[in-house]
Design goal:
heterodimer, A: about 45 residues, mainly alpha, B: about 240 residues, 7 helices, elongated
């Protein structure tokens, strides 16, 4: 039933879920930074 | 949504996600046949539920955009559509990843081309192509074409949902809204419901952030177009 491999897969699923979410949140933050920078360049 | 409401919602989501994690890994009973690996279920199902909700929002926004594409609210509908599609793809990707990690120890394989898995992969491809169309097309027609694609693309959502009811698949038969006697054990229901609520709330929050980013991009594009027009006029003089 439970093997070391299956426990590893269980933990990997939970960790990967939040890694993917974290990468996406960073991508969103970079998007805001880029928009802000381009808006400031336009105002100059 | 003002900053205070957003902060309260973010704190509530964090609490709910933490509670959900504890319910899934510690409180919910171990499944008799599969063992602890079945606990992936508490992330796998909410991820798909959030993805399908986002694709439904994308469908409604796309219909609205096509119906009122010359009105002022069209830009808002377009921002809602692209934001919901992106969040939908994000959660659909998580569903596919968690599904493969679950399949390997239980089935002995990472992937099989059965009706449920194949229709889900096609769904993911449809919305990735939607995002690529939005990203790569330089014409003004891109939002209109993407809205049409979104309407046809959504047809795959009920096919994915019904696939395990219509065809015999490697994927297990439904435990939610399935046949009589196929339901989830009552002791497992709280963990599923808490994670479902947590994922939907988290999905709504990042959808809101993505929507604000899209609106900021739209305003920037308008300002850039206006700026270019002014420069062109100045040069013409």
């Amino acid at each position: 039933m439970d093997t070391a491999r299956s426990i590893f897969h269980l933990h990997a699923a939970y960790v990967l879920t939040w890694c993917v979410q974290l990468v996406y949140v960073i991508y969103l933050a970079m998007g805001f930074v880029r928009v802000k920078r381009e808006s400031e360049e336009l105002k100059k | 949504m003002n900053r205070a409401i957003f902060t309260i919602a973010a704190v509530a989501t964090a609490i709910l996600l933490s509670f959900g994690l504890r319910e899934a890994l510690q409180v919910a009973p171990t499944e008799a046949t599969m063992g602890n690996i079945q606990r992936i279920f508490y992330y796998h199902v909410p991820a798909y539920a959030t993805a399908f909700t986002m694709f439904a929002v994308n469908l409604l926004a796309s219909i609205f955009y096509l119906a009122r594409r010359n009105s002022e609210s069209a830009a808002i509908a377009d921002a809602v559509a692209v934001s919901s599609a992106e969040i939908g793809v994000l959660f659909c990707s998580i569903g596919l990843i968690t599904g493969m990690l679950w399949a390997k120890p239980v089935w002995g394989i990472w992937w099989t081309w059965d009706a449920r898995l194949t229709s889900t992969f096609v769904l993911w491809l449809i919305y990735v192509s939607y995002l690529m169309l939005r990203q790569m097309s330089a014409t003004d027609q891109a939002p209109t074409l993407a809205a049409a694609l979104a309407i046809f693309g959504f047809v795959d959502v009920p096919i994915v949902y019904m696939s395990i009811r219509w065809w015999r698949t490697q994927h297990p038969q439904p435990v939610i809204f399935g046949e009589q006697g196929s339901g989830l054990d009552p002791s497992m229901v709280p963990a599923l419901l808490v994670n479902l609520a947590a994922f939907l709330l988290y999905g709504a929050l990042i959808f809101w952030v993505r929507y604000k980013l899209e609106r900021a991009r739209q305003q920037l594009r308008e300002s850039q177009a206006l700026h270019s027009l002014k420069l062109a006029r100045a040069e013409a003089r």
